[in-house]
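Morning!

This is the sequence you dropped in the shared folder:
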Amino acid sequence: MSVDGWNTVLVLGGIRSGKSEFAESLVGDAPTVRYVATSADADPDDTEWAARLAAHRERRPGSWTTEETADDPRRLADVIASAGPNETLLVDDLGGWVTVLLDPTHQPADDLATIAELAAAVRASEARIVLVSPEVGLSLVPTTPLGRAFTDALGAANRAVADACDAVVLVVAGQPAWLKPAVTPRAAGVPAQAGPARHDVTAAAPAEAPLPDVLTPTAPAAPAAPAETNGTAWAAPTMALPMVATGLVIQPGMELPMPDEYAGPQAVDRLATLDVAGAGFGELERVVGFAAATQGTATPAPWASVRVLLLHGDHQGGAAAGTVPGESSRRARQARAGRGALARLAGENGASLQVVDTPSSAPMEQEPALAGAAVESALRYGWRLAEEAADAGVQLLVLGACGAGTEAAAAAVLAATAGAEAPAVLGRVITASGEIDDAAWMTRCAAVRDALHRTRRSPRDAKDVLAELGGGDIAVATGVLLGATARRLPVMLDGPVGVAAGMISRDLAGQARHWCVLADHGRHPAVRLAADVLGLTPLLDLRLDLGEGANALTALPLLRSVLALAAALPAHPRLGGGDPDSEEPDFAEPEPAGPGPTTVEPDGTEPDFSEPEPAGPGPTTTEPDPSGWRAG
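The structure's back. Tokens below.
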């Protein structure tokens, strides 16, 4: 499954509409493509048709392989059914396939049954498949029986395959119009030819989605322009497939980018050469390596533009035991108004703060926390939040949450994905007065236990876990992580919601965890366990518990300072570095002195080389010593 959201697509178009070129651009990023040719060989006397076929062949890259199915039209379904999940097929086209299917040499043949077999194979296939077909529904009814049989059969094939495909596009005069899924594109023009085009994965959520539009924060710090590193902009688009209006379908096996595997180690090795007085950066070497890998350079820059996403969504039932009703809404209003710890820290760090309302989650011990359709919308919404941040020039996302019952929901996700026991990953419940509420803690544990019992026979796929246990905030957070990964945007996690989303995202795209960094575990048992499973070692051990997002912002100035120092310091002089402002003496071997005095005093007399008188008490000179210390 690719990031663009479709696994199978049908490309329709009229004669010379550009449908084949557009279909070829859809698979232009695949390392290998199996081109399935369905038409019979051309008549040797038909030079014009032979020229068309030759033009098709010349457009295909050398890495593509060709497979012919004209001898047996039923074989096309077998080819599609046998394709593996890592394969890419381009079938061009169904018009030629129907022509062969209706050929008298293949009669008697049940063309409707063969079309049904083809549609079933497309629907069940795990491979990426692009099928090209002529659209004959807009033409006049043919006047011959053979012509009517062809248009009827091709129309039936197009309808059956379109129903089986994830997406359908109609190409008219070189311009693609996406028919399925029916969403409104953000941009008017879509390049249909001339190779792969930049895609847009921020298609609008379906109308039934209960989520608002992605809004730019009302009072953000002015975002810095995307920094250039080695000629590549931070958070640059990563895929080449046209994505406008295809809709975003998030499924397991998505192929998202990885950080630079060489830049991180190179940056850490470089730290050992810097001109520092002590042993170096200690454990904070890891933040330099992380920033280098995500920026793609051995000298990473500090994150200049930071955005905090505060996800607000409550969980009903026992998960929210011990919380004050309305407290999470108060925290969200406080953050929007620029008050409270999170808003103050965001202001001090020059970070923008965006409060995101997520769908409320039902009592997980009684029913699914979120409907399946709402899970899809929440994932897409989170992806769009990351996309909008990347487009605004944000260089680091900080993911936090405030909501009743979030800790219990995260504990349930960990129990389902990592086999954790609820009492081991649920932190103690602390009341507003600072007291420990053991009764509320036991209620939360019981809610998680009952939810796991209710879902004991349910699938443990990522979306199923989100629907049954995770709820709206964790679903949106998962979409944020996936969208940020697709745009090469690093994310700083802070708290149970973020790490629970990390556990879910690894089953959708394992690359996502490599773009995440954990500032501090905050003494939370769920964060500790999830971080261990995800391979995220906290950068600090401050045991902060200021609220999700605030902990990360407290550590951010230190991390920025480390990155700024690592980028600015030169190599040690003994390792080839230089400091033009240094007044240190030249360590080169001096030239041998010739006979007689080599220096004179300011008055022109020769210096006195006799033994000096013993120095009295106190300092004897006030001249600066070359070493930088004063003599005493």
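Headline: The longest strand covers residues 128-134.

More detail when I'm at my desk.
O.
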